[in-house]
Amino acid sequence: MSKVQYIAREPHSDTIPALQASYNRYFPSENDKKGFRHPNAQEIKILEANHNSSTQKDWSNLFVTDIFDPNRIWQTRFVGESVIGNLSHATLQYHDLVLETGIYNSFIVCCVIGNDVCIRDVHYLANYRIGNRVILFNIQEMSCTSHSKFGNGWLKADEPEKNRIWIEIGNENGKRKVLPFEDMIPADAYIWSRNRSDTELQKRFIELAEFGNDKITKTSGIVFDDAVIKNTSLIKDAKIGSCAYIKGAFKLKNITVLSNEDSPSQIGEGVEMVNGIMGYGSKAFYQTVAVRFILGKNCQIKYGARLLNTVLGDNSTVSCCELLNNLIFPFHEQHHNSSFLIASTIGGQSNIASGATIGSNHNSRSPDGEILAKRGFWPGLCSDFKHNCKFASFSLIAKGSYPYELNITYPFSLIATNGKDKAVTILPAYWFQYNMFAIVRNNSKFIKRDKRVIKSQHIETDPLAPDTIQEILYSLDRIITLTSCWLKEHHPEFSHCNTEVYQCAKDYLHQHPKEDLTLYDGSSMKKHGAIIIKAAKGYKEYRKIVKYFAVRSIIEFCKREKITRCTTKMITAVKKIHLYTKWENVGGQIIPQELLERLSKDIKSKKINNWQEVHAFYDFCESHYAEYKVRYALYLLEFLYSQPIEEFDKEIFKDIKADVLEVSNYMYNNSISSRQKDYTDYFRTITFENKAEMDAVLGKLEDNTFLHELKKSTLSFNANLETFFAGII
Questions:
Q1: Domain that holds residue 66
Q2: Predicted confidence (pLDDT) per residue in 86-102, tens digit
Q3: pTM, whole model, 2 decimals?
Q4: Is 686 within a domain?
Q5: CA atoms within 13 A on the CB side of 705
Q6: pLDDT per position as a tens digit, 5-35
Q7: Lower CB count within 10 Å: N or C terminus of the chain?
């Protein structure tokens, strides 16, 4: 264990050789000192009269400009060389903090200080580059080592591999770990963490992360223009962006705080952040602890949240909870008390309820379990799950303890426990039948909450997108397969039929859409499986939603291309677009799997050599997303009707139009009825004296902005639907 080193000094010597040896050999640089001068005799006299001191009696270690007022420096000690920009008589104000420019009651070691700053009561400031108009007030220690990485996973010259800072996401055993870097987005962390068997690709990911690292051990801390730091205990090896506001932080070490005037970041009281990168416009408050982390843009962590080995996607809020070893995509909400999220990859647009415990290792002999949940993961109050579990998109899980591993493949479903040693119950397509208001509102809600100025991570906020539709197709097939098993068991005529029973099951579901059909799926939960209730109804709803998505995607594409009607020419043109049928949610962006495979090949062949080029690939995919989606939409219609779209007759198109119109109207009508219950349900009214008070508290239903927007968009879509099919029906 290291201990305090005693260094003898000559009697009456003002020099501190250890400090000068540590810093002065490279900082400030000769370039930093160009255009600056030493204080003149009169200025030195004023400096010393103001109880300032320097390690050089002639003050030759201090460099100033011609706009230098020595009366702005009081009771400050300068060790080693420092450069001070313009220093004139002025005042800096930030909120209620009003301070005069200058340097007061501080200890400065080898710093480059910008114009018109206020440095007051900074007890130890060493090896920092301070921007213009920066306020540093009441700081105990602010220093930077010569080998700082500011939260990046780099190595400096001659550093051993063990010095790397990894973020161990997705699994507690560290086998999905990634190297943090300043521009990292959830998509990067995802493709890195998932391709573990490809050792060549994993090696290339490290090389991409190291791109641009000069490995030179000449680092100095940075505080950019207009930043404010006050009442803070320790800042070490930090890069603080412009307009950042840090107040009352406890410990900030080896971090980058990305911030600018359009997206200022804030760190508040009692916060401890170590080995990480904080995104633009993000906030950390009230005793939060973050260690080995990436915070996306416009995130909030607060109220004692603990974030360890976690990448948190843009527009997320976590508080009062603990997150260990996670990769979380954008729009994650976990702001209730005492919830745990351990060793998971969560697809974003998720909400973790109070008391939920996601991930437990007591079913394994080592901490190597995982949770994989696609977007829209909503576990209920006090629910708990053990490793390993996998959840389809928009899984709504009822309150309860789930003692066995789960494999939920039905998207938009409700899952409920029936107690220990019993099968769980799954209601497929639950959201479409009973919670359509949430589906419709989610997209609008997420778009409005996206406050990012620069949107590096593309995010698909619509619940109905190729990734979720792909899951619906799997569920349709699964329900047919389970129905065929049910037919064999309950109808003797099918007991010996293997070749035709699948088609018979499909026909049965079409002919009995209202039957209260209950199926058994043994692969949904370990030991006891799952009971699939209202399977026929779920099957019908799934099909209608696929049609709605397909037609909506085609109409949106045609609108962009200024095509008003469905024509043979349009269909022919769309069919020329390359068809992708497998999709993946990559950090929030939906990308065809085939293109991801191409990306991996380009990285391994060194066609792509840095993460900026990877991001350009994401941008390319996003720019063609509408085209990929419309081609997929045609494929979906052909899949549902088992024939090429060129062979569709008028009856098929009428059936498609009718189902799509029904879904469109149901989305609006269900949203209206859902909100009406808040005004008409007796128990919702009992806390109000009268209707006038209720309207004053809740607002009037007819004034609901979202419902007005939904009505307008529904009428517009229905009109476009009529026009689109006018030429073929």
A1: 24-130+137-143
A2: 999 999 999 999 999 99
A3: 0.93
A4: yes
A5: 3
A6: 656 666 555 555 555 555 544 578 888 888 8
A7: N
